[in-house]
Write a structure and sequence with these properties.
Length: 382
């Protein structure tokens, strides 16, 4: 199977233009943004101007009118910018916090939130996880109580990517005092709403250039029009969102695995020990061959599954398989690549150390390895 089965000439032209942007405007700042623990908001603005934040959204609302594969190209190319936090922040903007607006939103919500998000004028975050509700999304307890003219929200969200800087949140909250997945709804909430409190930017092991925050809602009153989609359907609608999210995480994982392996091969060809390049040891070359084969298999699973998703299917099992395999393989390859670099690999000045730190989160975020296995088991009737 070749990439051309899935990527047209237009995709390749898009790839070229994103690659040039990444090389010229992102990669030169990677070190600085890692050290600062933040990439500037101007990255969103610039990417909006270039049309990269709305590739798959309809042209009528300022998007590029492309398919899901345009976002795949975006994530694959951003993986080359040298600081994964940028990829994560942008992926949340284009592929996680905003797709529900197009799918479930009113024209007014599309104009007020999605259109500025496509332009990079508003930054979005997605609020699902809470201190007491991680893997078990059905236990979300942030409560939106109906009040005259709207809703009063109390609760708190944690680990929210883009949360420190976001202008609005796509928020999952409970709207009925029942247990479980029933009685939840999604809202679009402006950051400047009184009672919306960004309490702190969290200090992470990796993905250091992306911001991750804890956010509180204290008697936050939002209007009726803040409701996104049907009241009470929030859990189902967020599960729909998670499919596109997990696929994009898998795409980033495969891209990171490719990059880490390329780095390892290049280094192993140059590094001489015992009088020969270390790649000349069959133990090393064979392990590289194994990993390359598994990356190729993962890549094809991702593309086939993405094609099905893009053509209206809902391949939940294969999406979870791609996410599970991707997260595990990306970390395994990064770990082996670090091994190839020996002591140098453990030094911050070598980019492989950053990939190793950054890929670890993919086994947790977007649903852990264990949760993907649960989903696969359920789909298999186990
Ligand atoms: C850097 C970062 C960015 C994130 N960004 C966002 C974001 O933008 N928005 C958002 O809403 N969330 C975000 N998250 C949250 C992320 O989705 C959760 O951390 C993840 O879903 C796991 O939840 P938890 O951390 O509460 O772990 P827990 O659910 O407490 O799990 C702890 C451990 O128990 C295991 N476990 C739990 N249940 C089972 C089970 N039934 N069977 C077997 N094992 C089980 C888990 O797999 C895990 O290993 C982010 C997290 C991080 C670290």
């Amino acid at each position: 199977m070749s990439e051309s089965l899935f990527f047209t000439e237009e995709h390749e032209l898009l790839r070229q233009s994103i690659r040039e942007f990444v090389e010229k405007e992102l990669a030169p700042h990677a070190e600085e943004w890692e050290a600062e623990g933040f990439f500037p908001n101007s990255v969103f603005k610039r990417m909006g101007e270039l049309g990269f934040l709305g590739l798959h959204y309809p042209e009528e609302i300022g998007g590029g009118g492309g398919d899901y594969f345009t976002n795949i190209v975006l994530v694959e190319e951003l993986a080359r910018c040298g600081t994964s936090g940028v990829n994560t922040g942008v992926a949340v903007q284009v592929g996680m916090a905003t797709p529900p607006i197009l799918k479930f939103g009113t024209q007014e919500q599309i104009q007020n939130y999605l259109v500025p998000a496509i332009k990079g004028e508003k930054i979005a975050c997605l609020g699902i996880t809470e201190p007491g509700a991680g893997s078990d999304v059905a236990s979300v307890s942030t409560f939106a109580e109906k009040v005259p003219g709207g809703w009063k929200v109390n609760g708190n969200k944690i680990f929210i990517t883009n949360g420190y800087r976001a202008d609005f949140m796509t928020l999952l909250a409970r709207t009925e005092k029942v247990k479980g997945y029933k009685g939840m709804s999604i809202f679009l909430v402006d950051r400047d709403t009184p009672g919306y409190v960004v309490s702190r930017k969290l200090d992470k092991v990796g993905q250091r250039s992306s911001d991750t925050a804890e956010i509180f809602f204290q008697d936050m009153v939002i209007p009726e029009e803040a409701l996104l989609g049907e009241e009470g359907r929030g859990f189902y609608n967020i599960m729909w969102e998670l499919q596109g999210e997990r696929l994009l995480v898998a795409v980033a994982c495969a891209a990171d695995a490719h990059i880490a392996l390329e780095m390892a091969i290049e280094y192993a060809k140059e590094r001489v020990q015992f009088g020969k390049p270390i790649i000349k040891n069959q133990a090393i070359a064979h392990r590289i061959a194994d990993l390359a084969s598994r990356i190729e298999a993962l890549q094809n699973l991702i593309y086939v599954t993405a094609w099905r998703f893009d053509h209206g299917e809902y391949p939940v099992k294969e999406i979870s398989m791609a996410k599970l395999l991707g997260a595990q393989l990306a970390f395994e390859v990064a770990d082996y690549a670090l091994q190839i670099f020996g002591g140098y690999g453990y030094m911050n000045e070598y980019p492989i150390s950053r990939i190793w730190r950054d890929t670890r989160i993919t086994r947790v975020g977007g649903g852990t390895d264990e949760i993907q296995r649960e989903i696969i088991c359920t789909a298999m009737g186990l």
